[in-house]
Amino acid sequence: MRSLCLLVLLLMLLDCCLCQFPRPCATSEGLRTKECCPVWEGDGSACGALSGRGFCTEVEVSDEPHGPQYPHSGIDDRERWPTAFFNRTCRCAGNYGGFNCGECRFGYWGANCAEYRESVRRNILTLSTAEQQKFISYLNLAKNTISRDYVISTGTRAQMGVNGENPMFSDISTYDLFVWMHYYVSIDAFLGGPGNVWRDIDFAHESAAFLPWHRVFLLNWENEIRKLTGDFNFTIPYWDWRNAQSCEVCTDALMGGRNALNPNLISPASVFSSWKVICTQPEEYNSREALCNSTGEGPLLRNPGNHDTNRVQRLPTSADVEFAVSLSQYETGAMDRFSNMSFRNVLEGFASPMSGMAVPGQSTMHNSLHVFMNGTMSSVQGSANDPVFLLHHAFIDSIYERWLRTHQPPRSNYPQANAPIGHNDDVYLPLQAQQIWQWLLGAGLFGAVLAVLIVSVFIVARRKMKHGQRKKRASSFGERQPLLQSSSEEGSSSYQTHL
Ligand SMILES: *[C@@H]1O[C@H](CO)[C@@H](O)[C@H](O)[C@H]1NC(C)=O
Ligand SMILES: *[C@@H]1O[C@H](CO)[C@@H](O)[C@H](O)[C@H]1NC(C)=O
Ligand SMILES: *[C@@H]1O[C@H](CO)[C@@H](O)[C@H](O)[C@H]1NC(C)=O
Ligand SMILES: *[C@@H]1O[C@H](CO)[C@@H](O)[C@H](O)[C@H]1NC(C)=O
Ligand SMILES: *[C@@H]1O[C@H](CO)[C@@H](O)[C@H](O)[C@H]1NC(C)=O
């Protein structure tokens, strides 16, 4: 079958891993001082400063204007992230990473993080049975093991008291940490009063940060699974859905077959039938002005192919992918879901992969897979509950990489200003609690903002070459093999209604 290797370029200098929120910072003290510079246990100093791993410094946030889609300011914790929570974090030196500089940046290994090693993501359908089983057991372990390093917030910063006297944080499993982060980055803004929300806001979808944000997200997710299992060779496999007629990974050996008694559920022969979803009730949280708190909300729902065929007529083809990759402009126009001839908007799935024109009311490409799954995957905020999300986004990331290698865009191709809130270059998005400096997104040619969630999370993608001063690294990509070879409106609670 298709056996394309995905080279994930962990080549990028991504700094790692702070997801939302580092446990040592989730305290009254952390909230009061707004400092998140945890001690590295290797030498007992904050940010491993004594060993030269990093230092504690002020967070700098871009002040470039954002687009008109979100007309408010000063009401949502995610604005100017992560400054509502922290204004000082660790900045790691060299190849160090992590919220206390105790880890290595993506792609680097060893005690001094000096060894560079690439990882390769592989097609799930070509893994051996033992490898497939290992992957599923890792996911299940992650679903059932409390994260050691991160917690989630269960309230807004305001709800935690002026001086942080009422910290609201909660333990969460390693898998659900990522479900929660994906939820948090896409929630509506609370405007005050039950159900009074601003829906046209999303720090990871419907604009420029969509691709880099999800890239960093997967890298962090992969990293946390590696730490949990001790298998540092682990990579998230992908599902190559080009020309698929059905959910080929929805079998009991993989992501779970269909339940014979209820087509919306997963077969009891799959471990995923016992998983409980979280963060799937946006209207309920909005009515209470509360955040999802990780309470289980019922089984995973999935009914592939039972979707509204007026919205999604077919799954993406190879020709669709070729067309998307051929588009040279990353963003166009207002840089939102109405953009025409934008690579990002076509690949995300708000525009036609045949003409490049926005197609309101339809879902193509990335969005079409979400809608096709007709269940938990079909709502933006809860979609990461379904492990199919991982396989799907690993493949989306490979197409992004292919586009970067094809076009080798200058950094200026990524918007510096006027993108919807959270999507300009050099902003941190809710993913990480630590700054990610010098991210190399993509072929080293493209810097972007990613957001990771931590308290943020910042996600920043910084390219090594800023404003013209190039440094080496950036180059190596162009010569590599491509990763893949061919052998409605307001509100965004659902891929179906909105996207
Ligand atoms: C960071 O937050 C602390 C605590 O609120 C405050 O005292 C300090 O002035 C802030 N620093 C900056 C640069 O805003
Ligand atoms: C991980 O990969 C390295 C380098 O390819 C190899 O030496 C090592 O044996 C692998 N470890 C495992 C547990 O497979
Ligand atoms: C957690 O969320 C659930 C469902 O939204 C809610 O019923 C419950 O009261 C919340 N628990 C806490 C402690 O806030
Ligand atoms: C499943 O598809 C039907 C239309 O076929 C639609 O009415 C329903 O909202 C979809 N459910 C989800 C969760 O997407
Ligand atoms: C996209 O193209 C369509 C068809 O030409 C046009 O009606 C629409 O205004 C364009 N959208 C934007 C944002 O320019």
From TrEMBL:
Its chief place of residence is membrane
Task: List, as start-end ranges, the regions of compositional bias called Low complexity.
Answer: 486-499
Q: Which residues does UniProt call coiled coil?
A: none
Domain spans labelled Tyrosinase copper-binding:
205-222, 386-397
Residue ranges spanning the membrane: these are 436-461
Listed under GO cellular component are: melanosome membrane
Q: What is its EC number?
A: 1.14.18.1
PROSITE patterns recorded? TYROSINASE_1, TYROSINASE_2
Q: Which CDD domains match?
A: EGF_Lam
- Write out the similarity annotation: Belongs to the tyrosinase family.
Q: Where in the cell is it found?
A: Melanosome membrane
**May I ask which residue range the UniProt record assigns to the signal sequence?**
1-19
Q: Where is this region: Disordered?
A: 470-499
> Which protein is depicted?
Tyrosinase
- What cofactors does this protein use? Cu(2+)
Question: What GO molecular functions are on record for this protein?
Answer: identical protein binding; metal ion binding; tyrosinase activity
Which GO biological process categories is it annotated with? melanin biosynthetic process; pigmentation
Kindly state which keywords UniProt assigns to this record, in alphabetical order.
Copper, Glycoprotein, Melanin biosynthesis, Membrane, Metal-binding, Monooxygenase, Oxidoreductase, Signal, Transmembrane, Transmembrane helix
One Pfam annotation reads Tyrosinase
